[in-house]
Amino acid sequence: MGTTLRRGRMWGILTAILCFSIIISACGIKSAGQTTAGSEAGKTQTTAPANNQEENKDDKVKDLKGKRIALVMELNTGTFSQQYAEGVKEEVERFGGELTVFVAERDKSKMATYVNMAVNQKFDGILTDHGTPEALTKGIKKAQENNIPVVAFDALLDIPGVTVLEQGDEKMAELTLEQLAADAGGKGNIVKIWVAGFAPMERRQTAYAAFQQKYPEIKEIAAFGAASSSTALDTQAKMEAILKQYPNKGDITAVWAAWDEFAKGASRAIKQAGRDEIKVYGIDMSDEDLQMLQDPTSPWIATAAVDPKDIGRVQARYLYQKLYGEKTEDRVVLEPIFVQRDDLPKDKQVSTNELGQYVQGWSGSKQGEKEWMKLYKYK
């Protein structure tokens, strides 16, 4: 009888365990480490990579600090170039990097040498300012072979993987030329100051050629221009000679200057000659340019430009995108802003840092900014 009772109890326990197991299976409960088919397996597989991606992302952000960046400039003439370089430096420092600037002083072969030097010295990234394909291509391809990212500004480059920034040069020329035509009533005699051999100048010339077709009654009576270590002074001397060649009021309606250094030189010559009937329309903007634009006695009355500091900042951002491991577009066009004297205050002098208060869209560009960059603060 005792044996029978023990057997009955054992069968009862086994039956209870079996029922409990069936209930557990029906509810879909699994123990740690167990995998199941369907949605639960999918969740397990997608969660781990997401966490790994987040960890890798944090590692990349940390790795950006301490990068050595080379800026290779064809020239560093005038306040525009200086403010551009300041913008690059500001952004590189924001990311905790170290900037070294190489200036080729318009020597194309020296510029090529500097790019090669940056590669040989194992800089982490290279920025270029102006230059020609002949001067830059070989060194840039060598940089790519060494996994050194490159971002160029104002160069006619077409190298896959190299991001090239430009200012929207045709648009800048159109903005100033259309204002000139409107102020002149669609007719008159003008002087063009321009120089070949630079990517932005070639694009601006394209717009100028279209302007000539559109306004046949606006005649070009003189054209000159050269880039040198003293561009503004050389332009001033040449403009003085042209004023003597056309001494009467009405001989010259306006001057179109395709570079701010040209506009500065021409404006000084016109002002000193007392030819206040001649107006100057320029391209580019710096603090020095803005002072002349605000001066009611200056013939320079309008310009189109991108904040030079913004150009430097945006260029550096695209380089750091590459250093972060992101793919960037090969061509980036910066949107220019039209600035004329009538937009500016008459009771105080303003700087380019304050210009955005009076001209919508000036400075503070967020182009090239990424969400992860918010981790880096400006000094």
From TrEMBL:
Q: Name one GO molecular function term.
A: carbohydrate binding
Q: Which segments show compositional bias classed as Polar residues?
A: 35-53
Extract the ranges annotated as region (Disordered): 35-61
Q: What is the predominant subcellular site recorded for this chain?
A: other
Q: Spell out the Pfam families in the cross-references.
A: Peripla_BP_4
Q: Which domain of life is it from?
A: Bacteria
Domain Periplasmic binding protein, first and last residues per copy: 69-327
GO cellular component term of the entry, any:
outer membrane-bounded periplasmic space
Where is this gene product found? Answer: Cell envelope
Sequence similarity = Belongs to the bacterial solute-binding protein 2 family.
Cite the PANTHER family for this sequence: ABC TRANSPORTER PERIPLASMIC-BINDING PROTEIN YPHF (PTHR30036:SF7), D-XYLOSE-BINDING PERIPLASMIC PROTEIN (PTHR30036)
The protein's name is Sugar ABC transporter substrate-binding protein
Q: Which organism is it from?
A: Paenibacillus agilis
